[in-house]
């Protein structure tokens, strides 16, 4: 599947789900799917835009989230030091 096709079939959070996260004061959201597109029929901006405007940090393209077995974990996110950019890749580690 080409990247453009993958973006069309990726899961999405509904506007209500985005607002639920924001209303609860969540400060960081990690996802294992493309987060830049609008959900089908969605009139609001993408997950990335809505969270950015609300001060919620996003960590997209994580892997192995299905292997986390605990409700509470310690997250270590070591970013690459890159100057003059708005985002950088991280090595995300979870300690259960």
Task: Describe what you observe in this structure.
With 96 residues, this protein is an alpha+beta fold. It has one domain. The chain has helices at residues 3-9, 15-23, 47-53, and strands at residues 28-30, 57-59, 74-79, 90-95. Strands 1-2 form a two-stranded parallel sheet. A two-stranded antiparallel sheet has the order 3-4. Helix 3 links the parallel strand 1 (28-30) and strand 2 (57-59). The longest helix has 9 residues, at 15-23. The model has no long low-confidence stretch (mean pLDDT 84).
Q: How is this structure best summarized?
A:
The protein has helices at residues 3-9, 15-23, 47-53, and strands spanning 28-30, 57-59, 74-79, 90-95.
Query: What would the principal axes of the Cα set say about the shape?
Result: globular
Rg over C-alpha atoms, rounded to the nearest angstrom? 14 Å
Fraction of helical residues: 10-25%
Oligomer: single chain
- Structural class of the helix and strand makeup? alpha+beta
Q: Count of DSSP helices?
A: 3
> What string gives the helices and strands in order?
HHEHEEE
The portion of residues forming beta strands comes to 15-25%
Number of domains: 1
Distance between the termini: 34 Å
Number of strands: 4
